[in-house]
């Protein structure tokens, strides 16, 4: 088999498939073995070492896992030489899962690895092959992409045939050209998003309202992959999905990891793109079906009997019961005794939402400031929320607390809404005939230490935003300066910027600020 490039005296190759493809592969034009999802750590082995492994699937050639061919047929992962092509528990029977496996604390322990041979028919088989198997494919009911397994070499329906020689070289040339085009697309998107988020009007809108829309931030191809995975799950049964379905599936996490959203987050909260990609370990699939949160008695518009009419009184009943995320409770599975706050909610639209009452996200603009002030003046409510998971000033208190009307977050697929953690929000009824597709991610700055300080100072961890759109701290009065100095002396482990934000949230009342700093630093 042709090796492609040479690296460290070893042959390097990607295991690219050639037609005819197995029936399970019906999504892409070019396929390869790809490493899917994160690297996992196994429990202790018999020899006291810890194993590491990663799932192998058949996916786009663009995402091909590169291997180094070493030591008479061992296939070592180029990007992580701790791992090599192995089978589950070393078995060689048909339907045994094939994966990347290695020993995490002993790099390049390749003498333990299985050896492979490249057969004349284009299949790849273990060198010691008592069962006559080769690499093949098996559909996985829990994932979009099929997984790699051993199959009988005579199984023409499922066995994998790999490119080699001139065919491989031609294949690789096409893939490399596709990669260059993809990189150019990413660079252009990153440049556009970067220029958007550093614009003063963008920053001022985000600070004033507590949320903002990033238009066309996620490429269509990523939207299609995510929707394919979601619809696959729907096809397996609606019970597999609800409004709180979290998944680490790579088709879902790619919505942020492979888009320009990490660039936006790095500009607004600090850090670099790689930090924010590392934060994205799972996403919440959030579907709103036609009829969700609609009246039990269906009313139809006189002019269009395909549309359900939502009365003002019904919507009032929905909007008054807003929430912020992270409050402990049975419904969300968050443990009591802690408010599970973060810094930014990122909502990705996977479908166009052009009309109100289509199951869209709704927010109260400015509520992040109003809630911070409310909790500053009512610290006992925070304690009740932490211990009992209840006590938000929603329901009849809503209209007295929030000065501005709720906004419907309409947009097109690929739009992303960035929402401060403290911004009150809810979901509108879905009176449309369509499913509202969205995925939500919750991320935190590197400064977020798990404490609740940002509840009182919503922008405290948004370093980039604060530099581009400063707050009013620069003109502190003499009294405020004395208070800041006193509080800084009382809490030497708390950053000065944190002290200033808490004091501002407490309207300059140093006693109240001290109480908050003591409570939040526990």
From TrEMBL:
GO terms for molecular function: ubiquitin binding. Coiled coil: none annotated. Residues 479-522 form the CUE domain. SUPFAM superfamilies: Clavaminate synthase-like, UBA-like. Gene3D superfamilies: DNA helicase RuvA subunit, C-terminal domain (1.10.8.10), q2cbj1_9rhob like domain (2.60.120.620). It comes from the Eukaryota. This is CUE domain-containing protein. It comes from Pycnococcus provasolii.
